[in-house]
Design brief:
2 domains, mainly alpha, 7 helices, 2 strands
Length: 155
Amino acid sequence: MNSTLKNDFYRIPDELLDILIKNLKSSGSEVSGYGRLKTLCSNKGVNYGQAKKIKHEMEGDMDPSVFKLVGGDEMITWLNDKLGRERDIVDTTKRRKMDAGLKNQFKKTHNKDKNKNPTKVNLAGTQKTSDEIFNNRVVYEQVSRIREIIKKIII
């Protein structure tokens, strides 16, 4: 979930709300989807989590009668438009901050453990004796290590 948007509330446009209220009046309480429709009409909007859930269910395999009851294509169009615009605003804000010189705004701040080497980079050993320098043993050890890694990746 987008943490910046999780507390947002989106008011349903009047045209869509009229359709929902009309559907509410013409259907009975025993109809599937009636509870959600009643909640949408009484709240006159949805929060971010509800909007995501409704969008996901409507794009999935929702029963066609329930789909039509909760607004149908008009609802899905509004949800796609609204969520897309809100996400774009957050994305643009983060990108502008990065353009202004701040560090990556898409990553959460965290405390790094300075004692760990997360990439496990092994530095090549230095050649200390004339025999090592002459035979290039350190380089061959690194080449054989790289070959082992490649074999693990391929297999």
